[in-house]
Amino acid sequence: MREPTAVDAVAEKYVSTFATLDPLSATAMGLAGHDHEMTDLSPAGHDARADLTRSTLAELDALEPADEVDRITLAAMRERLGLDLELHAAGEHLRDLNNIASPVQGLRDVFDIMPTGDVQAWENIAARLTALPRTVDGYIESLRAGAARGLVPAVRQVKEGVTQAVELAADGSFFTEFVTGEAAAAALDESSSCSLVRAELERGAAGAREAYGRLAEFLRDELAPQAPTDDAAGRDRYQLFSRAFLGATVDLEETYAWGVEELARVVAEQEAVAAQIAGPGATVEQAVAALDADPARTLHGKDELRRWMQETSDAAIAALDGTHFDIPEPLHTLECLIAPTQSGGIYYTGPSDDFSRPGRMWWSVPADVTTFNTWREKTTVYHEGVPGHHLQVGAAVYNRADLNTWRRLACWISGHGEGWALYAERLMADLGFMDDPGDRLGMLDGQRMRAARVVFDIGVHLGLPAPEQWGGGRWDADKALAFLLANVNMPESFVRFEWMRYLGWPGQAPSYKVGQRLWEQTRDAAKAAAGDGFDLRAFHAKALNLGSLPLDVLNLAF
User: Fold this and answer.
1) Could you tell me which of 288, 292, 261, 543 has the C-alpha nearest to residue 427?
2) How far is CA 197 from the centre of its chain?
3) How many helices (H) and strands (E) does the chain have?
4) Are 371 and 299 in contact (CB under 8 A)?
5) Beta bridge partners of 298
6) Cβ-based neighbour number of residue 543 at 10 Å
7) Helices 414-430 and 235-246: crossing angle, nearest 10°?
8) CB burial class (10 A; 0-12, 13-18, 19+) of residue 464?
9) What is the C-alpha to C-alpha distance for residues 308 and 275, in angstroms, rounded to an integer?
10) Which residues neighbour 341 within 8 Å (Cβ) at sequence distance 6 or greater?
11) What is Dmax (Cα atoms) for the chain?
């Protein structure tokens, strides 16, 4: 095992202090001791975390790397923490609101990953629920401070925030069901001490609902009238977000042009596969119809979906371990679950530091979706599971021998993570796991959506010219919706959710496909350097053992 260095000590201190200042992130990282606390989302809370970032950078600047691991750690921390300060200086924390990844969702979603197996766990939940109203009030204070500086999220996102907050404020909302559900009943017996915990949970749930009611009122009556109607982030903000999500600086116009070309290339590949499925000259739509009509490729209901996810994931782990990857034993467990929400998202949550909470693949099924097609979703299981996120995230958590806690748990870059997951989908196709034409069309379907995101996101947020095929003039939200509906083979409710997501979360959606591109460039450069001695399995092992890195920093390791 590698001897910890002075750089590691600074990184460890940073994570420990940050966990105290941001208990929600501590829970997400699986760090024990903070599940009963809530993060301060007021301007003062944000400033305290920025002060920590500033002082940590000063400490790092005084250090020299002791070895290669330190060299990468210093480059990654300087890039990440420096970018955090740029975002803070720009006031982005004062307009943090969208339909998927803002405090509106985060203050509720954290309860999905909290332990629920014993009385202590429910005492922590009760304490966190009790603290939630103060956190909501701090969040409102930050949004109000942002508005005073003219920093207000687009009105479309504010209105969606109102809708979500109203739902969470309702009597029968998540909070009510959570504290009276099966998990609570299983952990809390009829003793007087458990009765007290139940009472605290019910009071906490009521307080949480009231807090979301206040948030809905603030968003509707105070923030919405000040919100701009333009969804576009603009070049300066977008360039900052692009760097944040990629950990790399890219030429946005060149990337947009590549996205247009990549979309056309994937469509052509889809058309070739469609001919294999439905006969010469068949369109993609005809192939999709044939696959959707195949009962052997259809799942009915959430239970059947969950079982299929689990079986497919388990089979991938068994097939890949010892052949194309060496998968540590704790990573052989991946739980496939139906999420308690109904947004349509599919996502992964990593294991806790000690693996007592395993990695989990979640499927948030919309209320109007009752059947599922395996040909569409096999590639998703590989994306979220193995060799995608579960292998990637789990390998970093497992690598205690080399990596400090910041490298293992705290550093996450979307372009690195989502780019790897898309790279993993293509890899599975290259390894023969997607040879069935239907499964391959499903993989290409996902690649097409991700390429369309590049065109959509950069086009809309930079106000670039739209191709005549999509209306000409400048890209806007309406043209972009028609574009998505034509290129994303999903139920309209899902497409509309994604459309709203891209409008409100600039730079995140392209990080998947652009991240894949940068991963492939890193691999190809390593292959060119190694010549005949290149070992793909060894490349993957080294890359995954580095943990999540800014993609510009990843290149430094090869």
Assistant:
1) 543
2) 33
3) 24, 5
4) yes
5) 373
6) 22
7) 60
8) middle
9) 27
10) 109, 174, 364
11) 72
Burial code (b: 16+ CB inside 10 Å, e: under 16) for 498-524 equals bbbbbbbbbbbbbbbbbbbbbbeebbe
Distance in angstroms (rounded) separating the CA atoms of residues 420 and 427: 10
- Residues 394 and 408: their CA atoms lie apart, in Å, by 9
Position 344 pLDDT exceeds 80: no
Long-range contacts from 374-378, C-beta under 8 angstroms, 24+ separation: 374/297, 374/298, 374/299, 374/308, 374/439, 375/291, 375/294, 375/297, 375/436, 375/438, 375/439, 375/441, 375/442, 376/442, 376/445, 376/489, 377/309, 377/442, 378/312, 378/434, 378/439, 378/442, 378/443
What is the residue-averaged pLDDT of the chain? 95
The whole-angstrom separation of Cα 247 and Cα 153 is 24
473: left (phi over 0), alpha (psi -120 to 50) or beta: left
Task: Round to the nearest angstrom and report the end-to-end CA distance of the chain.
Answer: 22
Whether the per-residue pLDDT at 96 is higher than 90: the answer is yes
C-alpha to C-alpha distance for 9 and 534, rounded to whole angstroms? 35
Beta bridge partners of 325: 321
DSSP string, 151-177: ----HHHHHHHHHHHHHHHSTTSHHHH
Task: Give me 417's structure tokens.
Answer: 């993570």
- The answer to whether the CB of 100 falls within 8 A of the CB of 343 is yes
Place of tokens 């766990």: 121
| Percent helix, percent strand, percent coil in the chain, to nearest 5 | 70, 5, 25
Instruction: Give the model confidence (pLDDT) of 435-494 as tens digits.
Output: 999 999 999 999 999 999 999 999 999 999 999 888 899 999 999 999 999 999 888 888
Assigned token pair, 303:
């239970």
CA distance 68 to 78: 16
What does the alpha-carbon distance between residue 468 and residue 527 come to, in Å, rounded to a whole number?
Answer: 40
Residue where the block lists tokens 């052997």: 296
φ, ψ of residue 99 to 5 degrees: the values are -90, 0
Residue 209 burial (10 A CB sphere; 0-12, 13-18, 19+): buried
Residue 420: which of 519, 295, 504 has the closest Cα? 519
Query: Encoding tokens for residue 525?
Result: 């450069």
Peptide bond into 330 cis (omega under 30): no
Closest C-alpha to 365, from 344, 391, 388? 344
Over residues 488-543, the pLDDT tens digits come to 988 888 899 999 999 999 999 999 999 999 999 999 999 999 999 999 999 999 99
Whose CA is closest to 488, among 267, 257, 233, 255? Answer: 267
* Two tokens, residue 358: 């395993």
**Segment 256-298, tens digit of pLDDT:** 999 999 999 999 999 999 999 999 999 999 999 999 999 999 9
Question: For residue 139, what are its two tokens?
Answer: 């969040």
Residue 368 has pLDDT above 90, yes or no: no
The Cα–Cα gap between 23 and 34 comes to 5
